[in-house]
From TrEMBL:
One of its GO terms (cellular component) is cytosol. Its EC number is 4.3.3.7. One of its GO terms (biological process) is diaminopimelate biosynthetic process. This is 4-hydroxy-tetrahydrodipicolinate synthase. SMART domains: DHDPS (SM01130). Catalyzes the condensation of (S)-aspartate-beta-semialdehyde [(S)-ASA] and pyruvate to 4-hydroxy-tetrahydrodipicolinate (HTPA). SUPFAM superfamilies: Aldolase (SSF51569). Belongs to the DapA family. PROSITE patterns: DHDPS_1, DHDPS_2. It is found in: Cytoplasm. The record marks 44, 107 as: Part of a proton relay during catalysis. The gene is dapA.
Amino acid sequence: MITGSLVALVTPMHPDGEVHWEQLDNLVDFHLENGTHGIVAVGTTGESSTLDPDEHCRVIGHIIKRVEGRIPVIAGTGGNSTREAIELTTEAHKLGADACLLVVPYYNKPTQEGLYRHFRTIAEAVPVDQILYNVPGRTACDMMNETVERLADIPNIVAIKDATGNIPRGEELIRRVEDRMVVYSGDDATAADLMLCGGKGNISVTANVAPRGMADLCEAAIAGDRTRVESINEKLMPLHRKLFLEANPIPVKWALHRMGLIGEGIRLPLTPLDPKFHAEVEEALNSAGVL
């Protein structure tokens, strides 16, 4: 079982938008040195929507090679085309990913039956552990707990990233699937609460800039140490909030640049963080003790 702080890693880029491979190596090393429990490669935060399929797979392979089995690597391989998701998942499996993260199809807004068939078809096509990803705020499609419970019967669908931020709903989901599937948070601001309800980790944006703090938070929450959780989370909460002042990953890439870890590169249609937000993000970095 993969548990703990799973960083939704950014993809560093040159000013022209090309992938910066040396900085990517440095980020992987940064997480290995600071206690991150696993890396999610080319998810939303990794700008999966603007990498072409070849780049997508090259980044996944590059991270797997750099990690060298020291911590799990989860590959983002979802899409709104079932065929494309199968192709990406197949390639990630060949590259050695420990699991694949599959987002709910976006834009085309399938029915609940369509979602069930989509994920079942991918799971049957590729024998790799698969993690569902429900983030209705970005996909305009919400996978209901009843649908997740149906999918939990498929042996290689092993987990779900619940990014709804709805704790009562998340707690109900954990009860429904706890004997068959792991539930991770995908919402930093509410992650501690979900883990205290039985979630087994957090796929985190904040972990990009505060890996040690997020690792400590997840370990404490999974252990049920509420007092320690509250202490750590209070320090990190400004980051949880300020890293979403503009669409993810705009603020977190600027924060990493401010920390001297990456350049300013980001791909259109995303743009660099508006200067009016710089002071707020910098204040959150200082508050968390990472700057």
